[in-house]
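Morning. Coffee machine broken again, so started the prediction first thing and wrote up yesterday's gels while waiting. Chain of 228 residues, entered below exactly as on the submission form.
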Amino acid sequence: MESEVNGILVAAHELKAPLNLLRQLAFSLDFAENPGDVKQIQNKMISVSDRAIRQVQDLTKIARLEDGLFEMEPVAVRGVCDDVTRELSALFRFNHRNLIIDYKNRTRLVSANRELLYSIVYNFCLNAMHYSDKETRSELTLSDKNGKVRIDVRDYGPALPMDVWKSLKKGWIEKPISIAMRPGSSGLGLYIASKFSQYMKAEVGAVRHRDGTSFFVELTPSKQAALF
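Came back before lunch.
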């Protein structure tokens, strides 16, 4: 019971953060000196609200996973990554961040639910943006590994705490968690990615580097791809 309450508190804290930011941005409109400043603040407000809405929608999906509404199908993995990076490109530019994309995979189709896979990649990329700056970068890599297709998102931030890494090494995170060494990081996003991966029978995990962390999901190639 205590563990469940702590998870709810973490989720509530993360969902409150964008509301506080929206409030601050709304107040800052009073001090905008020209139409360009107003437009920039409005764009920021739209971006923040879109991300908050997506998190709420993802939490709603978790509650519906047991209903079997998210069918598994052959999914073009590069297309999903392209769509995520296209959606986030403006946010990366606005924050003066750089996302490098490297597609090495020969297997193009995976067995997944496109909607859930999109959310996993989105959460990983958004998480990485918090830990890149003008001097470093985030990296999205697709590769074939041990008969699976692997999506890696690399950042150059603080080390991932050992307990979080061990939870991911087991294959899942049981509840939303706070990550003390990464205050801008979304423990809620990792929880969402973990639940969606578990539903798709995919493996989610993390690699601790000396200068950052890679979060990954490994997916089974589609049988349809094998036919070709």
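The two ends are 50 Å apart (CA to CA). Going to sketch it on the whiteboard this afternoon.
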